[in-house]
């Protein structure tokens, strides 16, 4: 009886609501739909979109690279020297890049707003080349790295005419896939994206596994 009364009361309340009212829409839709930001089922959806050509797979890789490692290194004024912090960041970038031999990268060089645009463009390019050279020294194939573009002083992080370290930077980004590699187009997108997880679950021959009992 209480259940019937509750249903009746809910129906009476909804009778005064319009179709645009959140209470009305949440009552007549799937549970939790009002808080769904579009992330439910994204793994399957993204794979389908990538494999059917509806979504650029480089976008997903670029997002993952930027979230997993710091894609930016900074420089002293009028310098292309990689300091200790820059080298530490680039070592992490190289570790990430090494996991995905199919992927190509582009390094963009930037400067602050001090100096002429022509000089800064050349300086930005030299910074990008310095980063590419360091990544190559870490075992990354040079053919997978591109340092052809420099935005010079045209894309500052901080809009100031003064010296600004945050503007003196390079940014490493995913630019695409190695054309000669066949894995991308054969439906194995997840194999590329999650290769390290697949490898971590693969038993290694010759390794003795020891089970240690622990208490609760």
TrEMBL record:
<dbReference type="InterPro" id="IPR006665">
    <property type="entry name" value="OmpA-like"/>
</dbReference>
<dbReference type="Pfam" id="PF00691">
    <property type="entry name" value="OmpA"/>
</dbReference>
<dbReference type="InterPro" id="IPR050330">
    <property type="entry name" value="Bact_OuterMem_StrucFunc"/>
</dbReference>
<dbReference type="InterPro" id="IPR036737">
    <property type="entry name" value="OmpA-like_sf"/>
</dbReference>
<keyword id="KW-0472">Membrane</keyword>
<feature type="domain" description="OmpA-like">
    <location>
        <begin position="62"/>
        <end position="178"/>
    </location>
</feature>
<keyword id="KW-0732">Signal</keyword>
<dbReference type="GO" id="GO:0009279">
    <property type="term" value="C:cell outer membrane"/>
</dbReference>
<keyword id="KW-0998">Cell outer membrane</keyword>
<dbReference type="InterPro" id="IPR006664">
    <property type="entry name" value="OMP_bac"/>
</dbReference>
<feature type="signal peptide">
    <location>
        <begin position="1"/>
        <end position="19"/>
    </location>
</feature>
<protein>
    <submittedName>
        <fullName>Outer membrane protein OmpA-like peptidoglycan-associated protein</fullName>
    </submittedName>
</protein>
């Amino acid at each position: 009886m209480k259940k019937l009364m509750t249903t009746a009361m809910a129906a009476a309340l909804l009778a005064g609501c319009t179709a645009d009212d959140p209470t009305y829409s949440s009552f007549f839709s799937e549970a939790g739909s009002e808080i769904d930001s579009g992330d439910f089922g994204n793994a399957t959806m993204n794979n389908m979109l990538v494999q059917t050509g509806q979504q650029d797979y480089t976008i997903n890789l670029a997002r993952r690279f930027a979230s997993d490692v710091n894609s930016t290194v900074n420089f002293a004024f009028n310098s292309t020297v990689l300091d200790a912090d820059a080298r530490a960041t680039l070592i992490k970038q190289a570790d990430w890049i090494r996991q995905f031999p199919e992927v190509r990268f582009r390094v963009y060089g930037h400067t602050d707003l001090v100096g002429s645009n022509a000089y800064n463009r050349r300086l930005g390019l030299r910074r990008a080349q310095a980063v590419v050279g360091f990544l190559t020294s870490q075992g990354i194939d040079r053919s997978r790295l591109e340092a052809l573009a420099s935005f010079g002083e045209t894309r500052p992080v901080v809009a100031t005419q003064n010296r600004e370290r945050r503007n003196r930077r390079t940014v490493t980004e995913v630019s695409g896939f190695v054309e000669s590699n066949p894995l991308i187009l054969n439906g194995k997108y997840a194999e590329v994206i999650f290769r390290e997880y697949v490898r971590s679950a693969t038993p290694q021959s010759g390794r003795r596994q020891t089970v240690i009992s622990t208490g609760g």
